[in-house]
Every structure is written in structure tokens, then in C-alpha cells.
From TrEMBL:
Its EC number is 4.1.1.81. InterPro entries: Aminotransferase_I/II_large (IPR004839), CobD (IPR005860), NHTrfase_class1_PyrdxlP-BS (IPR004838), PyrdxlP-dep_Trfase (IPR015424), PyrdxlP-dep_Trfase_major (IPR015421), PyrdxlP-dep_Trfase_small (IPR015422). It comes from the Bacteria. This is threonine-phosphate decarboxylase. Keywords: Cobalamin biosynthesis, Lyase, Pyridoxal phosphate. Its cofactor is pyridoxal 5'-phosphate. Residues 24-351 form the Aminotransferase class I/classII large domain. It catalyses: O-phospho-L-threonine + H(+) = (R)-1-aminopropan-2-yl phosphate + CO2.
Length: 358
């Protein structure tokens, strides 16, 4: 079976695998909020329509001000981008041609963006199934790199790295002139993990990334945030295309960041579903990653690679994310988004059947 190189669009998944597309599909491959975007965005949509005619504020100043208040950090520490992906691309540009280490498995954009900037990219692959930072292995490497990318909560595992280890990494980076880029795109989904944004004031070598597209299901609108010391923000801003953040995204962002009860409700439902799924996988002999967010990895330990299970689920119209292009996973695991209760039930039914047949 030929697999699509990335895998987030079900249409391409069925095209690449040459499997017939079932009438009904549930997309478990995309890891945005399963409850969709906050209803206020639909209510305001018509009001925002006239904004199409004018150029947006190139600095997204109003949104920056509100985020600054919410996160308790000065506006000069913030850059608003066209999705977290734009901030990643800008950071990669900042380290053009430099030596980069990526803590793997991780979001594939870090490598792609750095390779596009002719960086020398190397990987620090964490132990499969555990995916914890082992500082005695990681710290000695720091001095050999100009920047290190890591993602916590991590995509694709959903694992939150130990705070003390990350602080040690940032400090070692500070001593060795190595920047640490922490991607917190999925931070909003965690119940009790802490952000690294406030550490930016103390460490000039720290850059934190956030995305608004995940929690607020606005991947089509594009909004991301970069947080770093003002001189780094100025360098990134100088590389950013003018007007890359559109006027409607700015308005939508303002609404999104005040949706406290929507965030609470989402976190709560995901928490309940994650526990239910956890019990199911344990009872049915699957391995599941220790996820703290809205997606997780699964492996059937009775098979060496996940392709037959992937194909089985695709035929049933249940679309997982394959892991062929994640170093350290190499197709042995499948990633699933946590969706609504009835959709997770359908997945569990299909997986029970799979176990009964195999
Ligand atoms: C870990 C991680 N960081 C950043 C991004 C980029 O998000 P955005 O949609 O804001 O560009 C993604 C998107 O999948 C992601 O998984």
C-alpha cells in the first residue's frame, strides 16, 4: 500500500492508498478541537465581511495587546503570525545554514522549514513508548547546535515533557549559546501543565510558539504567536511578509482568546474521552501513548508495523494519521485525534473487531 507523504487530508489518503473512498468518513488524523470553532465566529462573520476591502494592520496590534494582557508579558515580546507554521518558518530563517537539533518524534515542519533554509538538521530520538527526556543523553549535545526544536505537549505523542528537564535544557542552551525553541501549539488542551512563556523574560535564547488554530479549530484562518525577547522578535518581524495575518483572523483571534468557558468545556470533554479510550486500549491489549492532549498514539503490539491496521480502518471510513515520516516511530504507531463520544465509540468498536479477528 502506498502511503500519502503527510496524511492530514482524507481525500489524499484514499487517493494515495488507492482504496475506494467510503460514503461516510470520520477523520481522526486532524488534531483540532472536535467541537469545531466557537459559535461566536459564525455569529460575527457577516459583521466582519467589509474588512475584506482594506489592508489589515500589519502588526495585528489590537490582538497583540490582548494576548499580552492574557499571557502577562509585554507586547514587545510577541509576534503574531499566519499560523504557528509561519513562526516556525521565520525561526528557521533566523538560523539559516546553522546546526539544528530536533527532539523526535516531532512535528515534521521543523525539519522541512530548516532544510529549506539549508540548515544542518540532526535528530535526538527519544525512547519509543516512553518518550521522556533523558538529560544525561541530551545535555552533552547542546553545545554542538545553534538551535534545538522541541514540542511540548508533543505532537505526535501527546506527551508533556518534565518541566525541570526543560529548564535545565534552556539553561544549558544559555551557557552554550544555543537557542531553545519550545512549541506549545497544543498547550491549550492540557489541564495542569505550565507554559514556558514567562521564562522568555529571563532567557534570551528561548523562543516559545503558540497556535490558535488547534483549540479554536480555525486552521483555515491561520493564527500563531511567537514569544521571545524583544531583539529576537524584531529580527523575526523583519523577516515576516507584510500583512501576512489577515483582518478577519485578527477579529476572530480577539473573540477566541476570550472564550474561557469554551476552552474549559473542551478540555473537560477531552479529558473524559481520553480516560475512556485509555481504559479501552488497556483492556484490549493495545499500547497507547501517555497523552495529555487531544490526540494520542496507538500500537497493536502483536504486529510489527501498523500498515495492516491502517488499511483496515481506512476501509471502514475511520481515518488515522500514519507515522511513517516521524523518526523514531517509522510507521509502527498510528495517531488518532480524540473526537466526540459517538465517534470515539465507532473507533473502539472497529478496534475490538480487529482484535477479535487477529
Ligand atoms: C506541533 C505543531 N506546531 C505548530 C503547528 C502549526 O499550526 P498552525 O496551524 O497554527 O500553523 C502544528 C500544526 O499541525 C503542530 O502540530
Amino acid at each position: 500500500m502506498t502511503l500519502p507523504p503527510h496524511g492530514s487530508n482524507p481525500k489524499y489518503v484514499y487517493q494515495a492508498t488507492k482504496l475506494p473512498t467510503p460514503q461516510q468518513l470520520i477523520d481522526f488524523s486532524v488534531n483540532v478541537n472536535p467541537f469545531g470553532s466557537p459559535p461566536i465566529l459564525r455569529e460575527k462573520w457577516h459583521e466582519w465581511f467589509p474588512l475584506l476591502e482594506d489592508y489589515p494592520d500589519p502588526h495585528a496590534s489590537i490582538l497583540k495587546r490582548e494576548i499580552s494582557i492574557k499571557e502577562g508579558i509585554g507586547e514587545e515580546y510577541l509576534l503574531i503570525g499566519n499560523g504557528g507554521a509561519e513562526i516556525i518558518a521565520l525561526v528557521a530563517q533566523l538560523y539559516q545554514g546553522k546546526r539544528i537539533l530536533i527532539i523526535q518524534p516531532a512535528f515534521s515542519e521543523y525539519e522541512q522549514a530548516c532544510l529549506a533554509q539549508k540548515c544542518i538538521v540532526e535528530h535526538h530520538v527519544l525512547e519509543e513508548g516512553i518518550w521522556k527526556l533523558k538529560m544525561e543523553e541530551l545535555l552533552p549535545k547542546v553545545k554542538h547546535y545553534d538551535a534545538i526544536f522541541l514540542c511540548t505537549p508533543n505532537n505526535p505523542t501527546g506527551v508533556v515533557y518534565d518541566r525541570q528537564s526543560i529548564i535545565e535544557l534552556v539553561e544549558e542552551g544559555y551557557r552554550s549559546q544555543c537557542s531553545i525553541i519550545i512549541d506549545e501549539a497544543f498547550y491549550d488542551f492540557t489541564v495542569d501543565s505550565e507554559t514556558y512563556i514567562s521564562l522568555v523574560k529571563q532567557y534570551p535564547n528561548l523562543i516559545v510558539l503558540r497556535s490558535l488554530t488547534k483549540m479554536f479549530a480555525i486552521a483555515g484562518l491561520r493564527l500563531g504567536i511567537g514569544v521571545a525577547q524583544p531583539q529576537v522578535i524584531q529580527q523575526l518581524a523583519a523577516l515576516k511578509p507584510h500583512w501576512s495575518v489577515n483582518a478577519i483572523a485578527i477579529k476572530a483571534g480577539l473573540e477566541c482568546i476570550s472564550q474561557d468557558s469554551y476552552i474549559r468545556h473542551t478540555k473537560q470533554l477531552i479529558h473524559v474521552e481520553r480516560n475512556r479510550l485509555k481504559d479501552f486500549y488497556k483492556e484490549n491489549g493495545f499500547c497507547m501513548s501517555e497523552s495529555a492532549v487531544n490526540f494520542y498514539l496507538v500500537k497493536d503490539p502483536t504486529i510489527t508495523e501498523a500498515a495492516p491496521l491502517y488499511e483496515y480502518l481506512l476501509k471502514k471510513g475511520l481515518v488515522p494519521r500514519h507515522t511513517m515520516n516521524f523518526p523514531g516511530l517509522d510507521g509502527r504507531w498510528l495517531r488518532f485525534a480524540i473526537r466526540k463520544q459517538n465517534e470515539n465509540n465507532q473507533l473502539m468498536e472497529a478496534l475490538s473487531e480487529w482484535k477479535n479477528q487477529n
